[in-house]
TrEMBL record:
One GO MF term: mercury ion transmembrane transporter activity
InterPro entries, per database record: Mercury-R_MerC (IPR004891)
High-level lineage: Bacteria, Pseudomonadati, Pseudomonadota, Alphaproteobacteria, Rhodobacterales
The entry's keywords: Membrane, Transmembrane, Transmembrane helix
Superkingdom of this protein's organism: Bacteria
Regions that span the bilayer: 12-43, 49-68, 75-93, 99-119
Protein name: MerC family mercury resistance protein
Length: 123
């Protein structure tokens, strides 16, 4: 009988969910504001709260991916998640550059997918 997870390893999809929430909080909010503006509804979200939500989900992704190490014993996804989070946090709190932000989200999402894939390979 195969076990879905080892004790204490947590669900393998947690990194994917956190990464999706980081993307959704960033680009989903942007899309919602643009759509509402096109419909004539003015919405001005607080940029500090918006940035904090993106940063929180980004850091949760790192944590969730790092938890996967206990299951698959591969540090690669965690390193990639940290490398992806750096540019995201930089664009949120230092200097915005869309290509830097997209690169960070790409690396963060790839890390979550990689960690999930490694965990599934053991199931």
């Amino acid at each position: 009988m195969k076990h879905a997870t080892r004790p204490g390893s947590g669900p393998g999809w947690l990194g994917l969910a956190a990464s999706a929430l980081a993307l959704l909080s960033c680009y989903g909010t942007l899309a919602a504001v643009a759509l509402l503006s096109a419909l004539g509804i003015a919405l001005d979200p607080d940029e500090g709260i918006w940035a904090a939500a993106i940063a929180l989900f980004t850091l949760l992704t790192i944590g969730a991916v790092a938890l996967g190490y206990r299951r698959h014993h591969n540090v690669g996804p965690t390193i990639l998640a940290v490398l992806g989070a750096g540019p995201i946090l930089w664009t949120l709190f230092a200097r915005y550059a869309v290509i830097v932000e997209l690169t960070g989200f790409t690396a963060l999402t790839a890390a979550a997918i990689w960690g999930w894939w490694l965990g599934r390979a053991l199931s």
